[in-house]
């Protein structure tokens, strides 16, 4: 089973199950990104168009949200982070490769949301700057100077650019300070890899059931069973972890979508899943990244069902 180790490429495309991409002179098979930001239009021919994605939207609104949660628990009275507007084709680039760590995202992309949540839960708001990209009207300099794959999320760190959402959440957890988001328990770490490997099958199962007549409940039954594995907390590994972060953006979208399209409540008969969603929504590092459910449903119905 392949994990949804994806990036959003456009309002209707993303990259799923592509290899980890690191652009650095330290790797013999990598592509050099010059620190002086010299344009290299020849890079565009190295990447073929990725498969369709149903998650991205044409809207990129600026929102004010709570931020600076220093750990993966409920917080209160925290400062707020005013999100910058998305950069489009008319925007000037930031001072790329100046030593600043930047996370390039789209506000509507669930893959980017994974990394955004991880950044927040690690307490890295001051250390990793958010740079939102307007995917349907993205600037040319993003592909030419930052990330030749031309997708989000991407992390600019130590004069390198790294992509792919599951790789990135692990990278942030390993290479930055803040609370660990994977436990030391070998059994839990093994189960974490199993659950991360199921993300693609989970998503394709839900989308397939929405488009056809397959069992809508099966993917959520899997989550319910997985949440019963450990009894020392309400999350997949008991404690909040990267596994919860990997699934959260997709459950956030699928819960209102299947209720709207199929009149199906994913929490009915699934007390563990209901509790997981409830506890997840107490974590500021996640809730500050959430979108309006109506906006998500409208976007997904258009992408999946053409309505």
Give the arrangement of secondary structure elements.
Blueprint: E1 7-8, E2 14-15, E3 22-23, E4 64-66, E5 80-82, E6 101-105, H1 110-121, E7 128-132, H2 140-146, E8 154-157, E9 160-163, H3 165-175, H4 186-197, H5 199-211, H6 218-226, H7 242-262, H8 271-280, H9 284-287, H10 293-305
Parallel strand pairs: 6-7
Antiparallel strand pairs: 1-2, 3-9, 4-5, 6-8, 8-9
Helix pairs in contact: 1-3, 1-7, 5-6, 5-7, 7-10
Tell me what the structure shows.
This protein has 307 residues and is of the alpha+beta class. The protein folds into two domains: 7-175, Glutaredoxin (3-Layer(aba) Sandwich), CATH 3.40.30; 186-305, Glutathione S-transferase Yfyf (Class Pi), Chain A, domain 2 (Up-down Bundle). It contains ten helices and nine strands. The protein has a five-stranded mixed sheet with strand order 3-9-8-6-7, covered by helices on one side. Helix 1 (110-121) links the parallel strand 6 and strand 7. The protein starts with 6 loop residues before the first strand and ends with a helix. Residues 11-52 and 57-78 have low confidence and may be disordered.
């Amino acid at each position: 089973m392949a994990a949804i180790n994806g990036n959003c490429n456009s309002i209707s495309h993303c990259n799923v199950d592509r290899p980890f991409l690191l652009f650095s002179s330290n790797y013999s098979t990598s592509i050099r990104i010059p620190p002086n930001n010299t344009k290299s239009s020849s890079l565009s021919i190295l990447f073929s168009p990725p498969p369709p994605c149903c998650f991205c939207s044409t809207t990129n609104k600026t929102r004010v949200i709570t931020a600076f949660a220093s750990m993966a628990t409920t917080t209160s009275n925290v400062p707020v982070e005013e999100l910058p507007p998305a950069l489009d084709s008319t925007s000037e680039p930031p001072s790329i490769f100046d030593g600043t760590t930047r996370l390039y995202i789209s506000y509507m992309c669930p893959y980017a949301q994974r990394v955004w949540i991880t950044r927040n839960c690690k307490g890295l708001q001051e250390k990793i700057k958010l740079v939102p990209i307007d995917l349907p009207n993205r600037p040319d300099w993003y592909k030419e100077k930052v990330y030749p794959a031309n997708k989000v999320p991407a992390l600019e760190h130590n004069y390198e650019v790294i992509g792919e959402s599951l790789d990135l959440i692990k990278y942030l957890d390993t290479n930055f300070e803040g609370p660990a988001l994977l436990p030391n328990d070998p059994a839990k770490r093994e189960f974490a890899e199993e659950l991360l490997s199921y993300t693609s099958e989970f998503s394709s199962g839900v989308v397939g059931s929405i488009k056809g007549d397959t069992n809508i409940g099966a993917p959520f039954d899997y989550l319910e069973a997985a949440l019963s594995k450990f009894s020392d907390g309400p999350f997949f590994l008991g404690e909040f972890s990267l596994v919860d972060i990997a699934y959260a953006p997709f459950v956030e979208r699928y819960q209102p979508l299947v209720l709207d399209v199929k009149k199906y409540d994913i929490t009915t008969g699934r007390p563990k899943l209901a509790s997981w969603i409830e506890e997840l929504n107490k974590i500021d590092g996640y809730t500050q990244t959430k979108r309006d459910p109506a906006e998500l449903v409208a976007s997904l119905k258009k992408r999946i069902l053409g309505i």
